[in-house]
Write a structure and sequence with these properties.
Blueprint lengths: L2 H17 L10 E6 L6 E7 L8 H10 L2 H4 L5 H4 E8 L5 E9 L2 E12 L5 E5 L6 H4 L8 H14 L6 E2 L4 E9 L2 E14 L3 E8 L5 E6 L5 E7 L5 E9 L2 E3 L1 E2 L6 E5 L12 H7 L3 E2 L1 E2 L3 E2 L5 H21 L11 E7 L6 E4 L5 E5 L13 H14 L8 H22 L6 E2 L14 E2 L21 H21 L1 E3 L2 E3 L4 H15 L6 H16 L4 H12 L4
Parallel strand pairs: 12-19, 16-20, 20-22
Antiparallel strand pairs: 1-2, 2-6, 3-4, 4-5, 5-6, 7-9, 8-9, 9-10, 10-11, 12-13, 13-14, 14-18, 15-16, 16-17, 21-22, 23-24, 25-26
Bound molecules: [2(R,S)-2-sulfanylheptanoyl]-PHE-ALA (TI1), calcium ion (2 copies) and zinc ion.
The site of [2(R,S)-2-sulfanylheptanoyl]-PHE-ALA (TI1) has 15 residues, from strand 21, helix 9 and helix 10.
């Protein structure tokens, strides 16, 4: 039954049940009741609810409510259970009342009401849901003291931040009745307001009988602002920032749980060789802040690009694969720039750090690593891989892990339309030499990578040559998209969109931690068959591409 019909039925029934006996006395009274499906008490009542009268608006309302005690299910009298908070008369002569439900003097959290009485003294609407039958529902044996409740809440609050919040006013503790899942509890409402370490307006509800935290939530809203910044290559872009008073942070609240960019302050890269508890002293560093929302200092450039490009990679995965951040649950994307000293690398630091880091480069062979969009897409793809196939970072599975990061690095660059190419790192690699790159998909051998399985490099260096042997997979991906002849095999290209879908499906559905190159071939064939049919030309192209690089 639809809700409207139900409401009409209910109101008809009620009108019949309640008013028919008095129908002759009150012929023109009518009433429309919307009932809450969960609580069985009305949530909005309107109509001509009472006769004209000269009584005070408040008395009109209370007279109406007292006549309907079993419908609204309050406990004593309207006078004792509803406290008027506010009353005002509008231009049309309506009086508007705002009320709060109480039980024996204790307010029921969130249970406020409005009532509307027209100029002739007729009650025309009553809005809000009564917490029903509190006399029956409340456990009375309150054992927890106000101070204890405060400590329980505060302990929980403090444990959820790395640094203790600094309150901007004294926290408050108020005894209330808290309704949760149709159950009512005596509880203490403890409220904390603070701006550090982040914006917070936390409400805790501590059960006065058991001391349990019934509920907690933060009501503070994130403040979005839009700043501008100048990137590593001198281009100006707009940035989503977070304004706190007169400070702007590189915190983008518009994507998932946020994109946050931090200053690593050039603390030595050697900390990566130290125990995690030491690393955690330095990472992620300080959330990047600025006083005028214009990020145009030369020291800002690496942060500007890390922040801006991470947002674009988030958009790429959302747009192409409906994936909400790397965990598909909106996980915050964190980056630390100015990591290390003249450090020539960038990386995804997995559990328990779950963040990226970007070196500044030595200025000769490399510019700051966040200046190249494909690097950022490469790093975020490692995070996607971690949460899906979780390819072990050594030997063949490790080379595929690297290749996936490169492949989606290229595909994201094409999607974003940022001077796309089949090269990796060209924007920041050897700033004085143009046209080169760290890796090439069309010809991996240009930069010392194999392009055929027969040239697979067996080594213990670099986790089994993960950045070297990835060339074989990169070449297969290139041939699959663009087509061509390689080692005597002709491949019909299917284009970047289709290879994106095939590799994404392979990565997220079929590959496993210890997958081999051969298993990637099977995964890609299977994915192509799922997407385009088992006899499709796409499946044939996948077979050709892997044949061409010698993977069976
Ligand atoms: S994931 C990271 C390696 C892990 C380092 C952890 C300390 C990585 O693969 N980095 C990329 C950076 C990159 C990406 C550069 C795209 C250019 C384009 C990488 O390829 N690094 C090279 C320098 C390497 O580590 O050998
Ligand atoms: Ca500035
Ligand atoms: Zn990598
Ligand atoms: Ca590129």
């Amino acid at each position: 039954m639809n809700k409207k019909f139900l409401a009409v039925c209910l109101s008809l029934c009620l009108v019949l049940a309640i008013f028919i006996p008095q129908a002759s006395a009150k012929p023109d009274i009518f009433e429309k009741i919307n009932k809450s499906e969960r609580t069985s008490t009305p949530e909005f009542v309107s109509g001509k609810l009472t006769e004209k009268s000269d009584k005070k608006p408040k008395d009109v309302l209370f007279g109406y409510l007292n006549g309907k005690k079993d419908v609204f299910k309050f406990t004593e009298t309207a006078e004792s259970d509803f406290v008027v908070l506010d009353e005002f008369v509008d231009d049309l002569g309506y009086t508007h009342l705002r009320l709060q439900q109480e039980f024996k003097g204790t307010p029921v959290y969130g249970r406020t009401f409005t009532a509307h009485i027209d100029s002739s003294g007729v009650l025309t609407a009553f809005s809000g849901t009564v917490a029903p039958e509190l006399d029956k529902k409340l456990k009375q044996d309150k054992k927890v003291k106000k101070k204890e409740a405060f400590s329980i809440a505060e302990e929980d609050l403090i444990s959820s931040f790395s640094d203790s919040p600094s309150y901007i006013m004294d926290p408050t503790t108020e005894e209330v009745i808290y309704v949760k899942d149709d159950e009512s509890h005596y509880a203490f409402h403890v409220n904390f307001k603070f701006l550090y370490p982040e914006l917070g307006d936390w409400s805790y509800f501590v059960d006065a009988v058991t001391g349990d935290i019934l509920d907690k939530f933060n009501q503070s809203f994130k403040i979005n602002s839009v700043g501008t910044g100048t990137g590593v290559l001198g281009d100006v872009k707009s940035l989503n920032t977070d304004q706190q008073g007169s400070t702007y942070y590189l915190q983008d609240n518009t994507r998932g749980d946020g994109i946050l960019t931090y200053d690593g302050e050039n603390v030595s890269q050697n900390i990566l060789n130290r125990p995690i508890r030491i690393i955690q002293r330095y990472l992620p560093g300080n959330l990047w802040s600025d006083t005028d929302n214009i990020f145009n200092d030369s020291y800002d450039a690496a942060a500007v690009d890390a922040h801006y490009y991470a947002g674009l990679v988030y958009d790429y995965y959302m747009d192409q694969f409906n994936r909400d951040s790397f965990d598909n649950q909106g996980a915050a994307i964190k980056s630390t720039v100015h990591f290390g000293q003249n450090y020539n690398n960038a990386g995804w630091l997995g559990e328990p750090l779950n963040q990226m880091m970007y070196g500044d480069g030595d200025g000769v062979n490399w510019l700051p690593f966040s200046g190249s969009f494909d690097v950022i897409a490469h790093e975020i793809t490692h995070a996607v891989t971690d949460r899906t196939a979780n390819l072990i970072y050594q030997n063949e599975s490790g080379a595929m892990n690297e290749a996936m990061s490169d492949i989606f690095g290229v595909l994201a660059e094409f999607w974003a339309g940022l001077d796309p190419d089949w090269l990796m790192g060209e924007d920041i690699y050897t700033p004085t030499i143009s046209g080169d790159a760290l890796r090439s998909f069309s010809d991996p051998t240009l930069f010392d990578q194999p392009d055929h399985y027969s040239d697979y490099l067996n080594t213990t260096a670099d986790y089994g040559g993960v950045h070297t042997n990835s060339g074989i997979i990169n070449k297969a991906a290139y041939l699959l998209s663009e087509g061509g002849n390689h080692s005597g095999v002709a491949v019909n290209g299917i284009g970047i969109d289709k290879i994106g879908d095939i590799f994404y499906r392979s990565l997220t559905q079929y590959l496993t931690e210890s997958s081999t190159f051969s298993q990637l071939r099977s995964a890609a064939e299977q994915s192509a068959a799922d997407l385009y049919g088992s006899n499709s030309s796409e499946v044939t192209s996948v077979q050709q591409a892997f044949d061409a690089v010698g993977i069976n």
